[in-house]
Amino acid sequence: xxxxxxxxxxxxxxxxxxxxxxxxxxxxxxxxxxxxxxxxxxxxxxxxxxxxxxxxxxxxxxxxxxxxxxxxxxxxxxxxxxxxxxxxxxxxxxxxxxxxxxxxxxxxxxxxxxxxxxxxxxxxxxxxxxxxxxxxxxxxxxxxxxxxx
Length: 149
Fold this sequence. Notes:
The chain has about 150 residues and is α+β, with helices and mostly antiparallel strands. The protein has four helices and six strands, in the order βααββββαβα.
């Protein structure tokens, strides 16, 4: 993959061994905290974890943790033994470490979909220079009153 300044991992897993863990908000919370620490990222806010009750095939938990580097999220379907995981980061990381953390919290599973995209691929060949320019622009820009950052 061309030099990038970060990664975006999107993964769907099935046949999760510990379905009870997928249906436990405290486990989801611990998973998110463990994940970002394993990847060497820094928490800005969260995690925020909430339950989706209702029909068994839709029941589960959704959790997100906001990072200085971007975010990590999980959406579980405990009855189905499935989950979606999303790690969007300005910081490069080893995607196999995401699977290792998942195994610690949820047991064995099967990856049925996985997409990993490089962030910053639209930039030129000198990613380091472009990242410095982008960072400098962020530091000097001003937001209008009531604007979004």
